[in-house]
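Translate structure to sequence.
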């Protein structure tokens, strides 16, 4: 029985990888004051950030509904697939819980749900690990067991260019955002095991890249490791970091992706993030 990987749109997995590996993506919804959009289907990342810049009120996001998952699950089962669902952390969204509800509604033991305990590029890295395990011919039980172990080793380090959206979303006080903006402070965030932690801060956008480069040099052996670099509508920044890492290291797989509308609601434009799976 073939295994079908089903994910949600917050993984921001690049379109070429979706097509290459036959992955099914269930969209979340982004809600502006004037209209609601299905993530990646009715609004692109570029269109989202254009609207975000023009919007006085921060958009909200809505989890994928159990009904949306039921439809996708039933179709995959009818096609003879066993389902491997990998979704955004339950601490960040109710989407994974919606998938679990849908599994109960469908009533099939051929649906397997994993809470990735991460999001965006972190989830994408876990999904790509799932693809490798499927291609190796492992059975679904073995794959789930391995992914449940691997997910605790997924790490993301990100630099945020503006404090505006963290403040708008209630994740930073207005006073702290004002002071940080005046001082040109850019926070460095770490995401691991469903926890978002501010671990450092730098002054100026260029210092974000330098911080990430220095961190890799000092803490991570990226030889023979898949590395994800994601950006929010600033591909130039991501390419610069990718080129630097490729010049320094050999035998690695580095790919670039875009931060989409759901995660972009909180980090805003010009964010840059690097993710990998620890040993």
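Result:
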């Amino acid at each position: 029985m073939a295994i079908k990987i089903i994910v949600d749109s917050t993984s921001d997995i690049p379109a070429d990888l979706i097509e290459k590996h036959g992955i099914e993506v269930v969209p979340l919804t982004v809600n502006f004051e004037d209209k609601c959009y299905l993530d990646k289907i009715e609004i692109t990342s570029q269109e989202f950030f254009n609207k975000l810049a023009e919007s006085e009120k921060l958009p909200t996001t809505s989890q994928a509904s159990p009904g949306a998952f039921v439809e996708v699950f039933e179709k995959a089962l009818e096609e003879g697939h066993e389902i491997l669902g990998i979704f955004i952390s339950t601490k960040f969204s109710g989407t994974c819980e919606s998938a679990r509800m849908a599994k109960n509604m469908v009533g099939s033991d051929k649906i397997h749900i994993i809470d990735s305990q991460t999001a965006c590029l972190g989830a994408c890295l876990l999904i790509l690990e799932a693809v490798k395990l499927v291609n190796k011919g492992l059975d679904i039980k073995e794959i789930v067991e391995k992914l449940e172990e691997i997910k605790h080793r997924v790490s993301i380090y990100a630099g945020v260019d503006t404090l505006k959206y963290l403040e708008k979303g209630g994740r930073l006080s207005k006073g702290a955002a004002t002071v940080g903006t005046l001082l040109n402070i850019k926070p460095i965030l770490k995401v691991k095991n469903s926890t978002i932690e501010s671990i450092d801060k730098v002054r100026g956008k260029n210092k974000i890249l330098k911080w990430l480069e220095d961190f890799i040099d000092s803490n991570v052996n990226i030889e023979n490791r898949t590395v994800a670099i994601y950006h929010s509508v600033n591909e130039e920044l991501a390419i610069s970091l990718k080129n630097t890492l490729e010049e320094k290291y050999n035998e690695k797989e580095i790919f670039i992706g875009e931060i989409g509308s759901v995660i972009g609601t909180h980090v805003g434009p010009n964010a840059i993030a690097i993710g990998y799976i620890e040993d």
